[in-house]
Design a protein that fits this description.
Layout: H1 7-18, E1 27-30, H2 34-43, E2 48-51, H3 57-63, E3 70-73, H4 75-83, E4 88-91, H5 99-107, E5 111-114, H6 117-134, E6 137-140, H7 143-152, E7 160-167, H8 177-180, H9 185-188, H10 198-206, H11 208-221, E8 228-232, E9 238-244, E10 249-253, H12 259-267, H13 281-284, H14 298-309, H15 313-329, H16 335-348, H17 357-382
Parallel strand pairs: 1-2, 2-3, 4-5, 5-6, 7-8
Antiparallel strand pairs: 7-9, 9-10
The structure holds nicotinamide-adenine-dinucleotide and magnesium ion.
């Protein structure tokens, strides 16, 4: 489990907790906080616990003393976790930093449940090609892509007319740009339907999340940008749809709880029983739909353009966005600056055709440097 201490990681472990005899937890991986990782490793009797940040190693080792659980730290140790013989890997690290272990898991032919959308946006082509070559099974965790996957299974791919990606619209769905300019970090972190990690919650508020998901859908299902539609659906009950050329649209519905798509991936090709997630449509009462507004949410346009440009441009979009979201969370720039930083960076950098993962990594690094200087410029104005 990559990203074991995060929102997706904890939802996954909640499913394991509900039926502990069905699983054997091999390795748990987290970023820098040793204490919560050690607690989970002890609870689930993992064989190995890894923190990416070497500075957290002494604390992790101390917290696991006497447990018989191996402690490790650093980038190589993160890779070691997926090199161990396991059947199933959850890729739920946040950010493009999750690319290397996800790629390694796919190279080794594991069944990989991918929540980490940033790695798909940055290197979707390489990841899917690697999976194809090794025979690895890729299962989409992101609720929308999980819904599409479910609506595609058993159907003729050639008969797909388009994918319809639903979006709650986030907390600022009805706000105008002047009001958006003044929103606080707290307001942006308050998602109406979903409880998630900070980065994806901010992405949902800017709607960059939907832009990233557009690119993610393209790679996962091989559908071109022009045939992926975004549909605002504030209730987050229909998690996405597939439109077939005969006029039928197939949807997957459910409560907005990540345990549902994660359970699908854990159970695949079967289905697990999950407590407390039954959807009551009579209680929901009504479902609403609207077209998205790319004027108020420029991230939608930026992501579409990036996908159309192809090559390394989506990796640049992602890297610039990661830098801008961090700066917003640190209160260095305003909410509208997030998409503005991404746009500025994309205008400054040329795209390229990546051949290897190193090309992507280099492009990611260069983009982050340019994005940091753009952030610094805006932070000076913002202060
Ligand atoms: P989170 O911030 O709650 O958790 C992130 C996890 O990654 C933590 O365990 C953290 O320790 C770990 N991590 C951070 N940096 C790391 C590093 N350098 N090396 C190893 N581990 C590191 O995030 P989340 O909300 O669980 O989201 C995880 C991923 O899943 C993101 O890509 C997000 O877009 C995607 N996703 C999340 C949800 C959701 O409901 N939370 C839904 C769909 C997709
Ligand atoms: Mg999603």
């Amino acid at each position: 489990m990559l990203g074991a201490t995060g929102s997706v990681g904890r939802s996954t472990l909640a499913l394991v907790r509900a039926d502990p005899a069905a699983y054997r937890v091999t390795a748990l991986v987290a970023g820098s906080r040793a204490a919560p990782l050690a607690a989970l490793a002890r609870e689930f009797d993992a064989r190995l616990a890894v923190v990416a940040d070497p500075a957290a190693y002494p604390e992790l080792r101390a917290a696991l003393a006497g447990s018989g659980i191996e402690a490790a730290a650093g980038t190589e140790a993160v890779l070691e976790a997926v090199i161990r013989p396991v059947d199933w890997v959850m890729s739920a690290i946040v950010g493009a930093v999750g690319l290397a272990p996800t790629l390694e898991a796919l190279r080794r032919g594991r069944m990989v449940a991918i929540a980490n959308k940033e790695c798909l946006v940055s290197a979707g082509g390489l990841l899917l090609a690697t999976a194809k070559a090794s025979g690895a099974v890729v299962l989409p965790v992101d609720s929308e892509h999980n819904a599409m996957f479910q609506a595609l299974v058993g159907h003729d791919r050639a008969a797909v007319e388009r994918l319809i990606l639903t979006a709650s619209g986030g907390p600022f769905r009805t706000l105008d740009r002047a009001a958006m300019a003044k929103v606080t970090v707290e307001e942006a972190l308050n998602h109406p339907n979903w409880s998630m990690g900070a980065k994806i919650t901010i992405d949902s508020a800017t709607m960059m999340n939907k832009g990233l998901e557009l690119i993610e859908a393209h790679h996962l299902f091989g559908v071109p940008e022009a045939r992926i539609e975004i549909l605002i659906h504030p209730q987050s009950v229909i998690h996405s749809l597939v439109a077939y050329r005969d006029g039928s649209q197939l949807a997957q519905l459910g409560v907005p709880d990540m345990r549902v798509p994660i359970a699908f991936c854990l159970g695949w090709p079967g289905r697990l029983a999950v407590e407390g997630v039954q959807l009551d449509l009579a209680k929901v009462g009504r479902l609403e739909f609207a077209a998205p507004d790319a004027e108020r949410f420029p991230a939608l346009r930026l992501a579409r353009d990036a996908l159309r440009s192809g090559g390394t441009v989506p990796a640049m979009l992602n890297a610039a966005n990661e830098v801008a979201v961090s700066a917003f969370l640190e209160r260095r720039i305003g909410f509208l600056d997030i998409a503005a930083v991404v746009e500025q960076v994309l205008m400054q950098l040329p795209g390229d055709e990546p051949r290897t993962i190193d090309d992507i990594r280099e492009c990611d690094g260069v983009t982050r440097r340019v994005a940091r200087s753009e952030v610094a410029r805006r932070a000076a104005q913002h202060a």
